[in-house]
Amino acid sequence: MRVVIAGAGSVGSSIARELLSNNHDILLIDPKPEVIGRSGLKGARWLIGDACEITTLREARLEDADVVVSATGDDKVNLVVSLLAKSEFGVGRTVGRVNNPKNDWMFDDSWGVDVAVNTPRLMTALVEEAVEIGDLVRLLTLQTGTSSMVEFTVPTDSALIGRRIGSIDWPQDVTVVAILRDDAPITPSPDDVVEASDELFFITTIAAEDDLRAVLTGRPAAGN
């Protein structure tokens, strides 16, 4: 997979390092030449320039990229890069870093963002995940802001324990995408049985989150 990353700071470099370890083709764009030596990245390609400039993105051959990641520390830059990637180069998937949670609402398809990664919100979610066993935790908002990835850790007294995934009446627009059990990921099948302390991961519309919470916790959905 060919991935172009705008911004070679700590976040962009960390993403690049992980992707390089999985043998992906990585190009980093950054205006500061000194980041090349400072990054310690081996195997990455570099382009020194302003990622908001069309000429820079043409030089990066953005039209050949499978994914463009806007990982700078400036939300305006991340929005512009995502929009240009989509509108001018037809990139199939864009990921935008949200630095200021107040700007979260702008990171949607109107600005060419497929997935918005709000680092402060994600960190908050991970803290909540560690302490909120038995409640639904939103990890990421996806696509146009209408869908999300959420997590639920099954408490030891849950009525779901012993039930098959396929026997549970999940709300419409909810899909079980993974089970994490004993630190091992499981691709769920209808016959998998829920166990205590399982971490269940779902893709859901935000509108269906309350109904999903009601199924998982046994508490009525808000408004019911």
What report would you give on this structure?
This protein has helices at 10-21, 35-39, 54-59, 75-87, 119-131, 209-217, and strands spanning 2-6, 25-30, 45-48, 67-70, 93-98, 115-118, 136-142, 147-153, 174-181, 184-186, 199-205. The longest helix has 13 residues, at 75-87. The protein has an 11-stranded mixed β-sheet with strand order 3-2-1-4-5-6-7-8-11-9-10, sandwiched between helices. It is built from 6 helices and 11 strands. Strand 9 and strand 10 (184-186) form a beta hairpin. The model has no long low-confidence stretch (mean pLDDT 88). The chain has 224 residues and is of the alpha/beta class. The radius of gyration is 20 Å and the shape is elongated. The chain is 26% helix and 27% strand.
Which outline best applies?
elongated
Distance between the termini: 46 Å
Q: Which consecutive residue ranges, at least 5 long each, have pLDDT under 50?
A: none
The helix tally amounts to 6
Strand content: 25-35%
- Determine the mean pLDDT: 88
State the helical fraction: 25-40%
Broad structural category: alpha/beta
- Biggest sheet strand order reads 3-2-1-4-5-6-7-8-11-9-10
What are the secondary-structure elements, in order, as H or E?
EHEHEHEHEEHEEEEEH
